[in-house]
Amino acid sequence: MELAFVCGPLLLSALLLPRVPLLPLLVTAALLAVGGLGYCRTEAARRARPAVQEAASGHNPRTTGIGPPTALASTGVVAVLAVMLMLSVGFGQLDTSLAATSDLALGGSEQVGILFAAIAGGSTLGGLAFGARSWRFDERRAVTVLLCLFGLFLALLGWLLSVGAVGLLILVPVLFLTGLTIAPTLIMQQGLLDHLAPPHRLNEAQAFLSASNTTGAAVGTAIAGIVIDIAGLGWSFGGAAVGVLCAAGVAAAYRRAGRSPTVVFDQPAGAAYR
What we know:
By secondary structure, the protein is mostly helical. The protein is 73% helix and 0% strand. It is built from eleven helices and no strands. It is globular, with a radius of gyration of 20 Å. The two termini are 32 Å apart. Residues 259-274 have low confidence and may be disordered.
């Protein structure tokens, strides 16, 4: 996933060079069509059956009626969704701010791919490092720490742009370090949600998580456009930092409340409840 975010912006930068506005849209449509049809023709997709998917997620027909009637009623799920919502507000502001940085501060939209590739490259490396081994720490605490680091790096970006430090040699390393915090945070959020939601409500829970993501990103994008026009790029990155730090605050408050069940993250979801 993160590798796609690295290659995609670089491809966009290459497609912008001929200065044909329609070209990136046509290539995107072609990639979506080929990818979608290709996926539908895979053996995994053609053999997918509801019963197999339910069994893989830990669903037991004999216990379907046991537990909360919806994923939202499960302890901790709403808190995870709230963290994702506020984090995504920050994401929306960040994406718009990066595009505006390329256009307004670096002299052209051709640089936007480099900026996005830098932060996505850091996220890729962070995700690979996180997934390469089992880590012995409380992942709810780790989410809070990583969100704080993410917010502080965004605040640093806002300060750099406010003082006129807009060169690629300065922005790219900071963006890379910022990206290191992203993928591990998202992985832990998705894993935590899988363990908090009942096994037969996993699809519902992940759908709510996706909805929180897209809703927050849309809100953040709208906010960033207004802030950039009125106050400038520095304040827009600052707004992204505020959104991410608010997510960190919610995560910390929920952890201190101690309302979530004990979760063993190296076991299947069905075995995680105590």
